Amino acid sequence: MYPLKTLVVIALALLPAMPVAAGDDHAQQTARRAVEQGRYVPLEDVVRDAMRRHPGTLLEVELDDAVYEVEILRADGVVVELDYDARNGKLLKTELDD
């Protein structure tokens, strides 16, 4: 399963949209609304697929121009970046860094 820190990061990313508070990131609010409106697939679905394909430690998840970028450190020390289309959840590309 995921380490506790990872679960907290995922849970925070999946929170329903709330009124923007001081210091809240506008990009996060926009992404949350897109998921709620069905324009983007939930981050949880993408992370689950990435971890199934490349088990390891989740390092980072970013959303950039409707692309979820997921970085995983595998047990063999290789960092894998998987890019998913945020609109439909399809895997676009996979890059390996030693």
TrEMBL record:
Lineage: Bacteria, Pseudomonadati, Pseudomonadota, Gammaproteobacteria, Lysobacterales
Keyword Signal: yes
Domain PepSY: 41-95
Designated name of the protein: PepSY domain-containing protein
Gene3D superfamilies, per database record: 3.10.450.40
Pfam families linked to this entry: PepSY
Keyword annotations of the record: Signal
Organism field: Stenotrophomonas lacuserhaii
Signal peptide from the UniProt entry: 1-22
Top-rank lineage group of the source organism: Bacteria
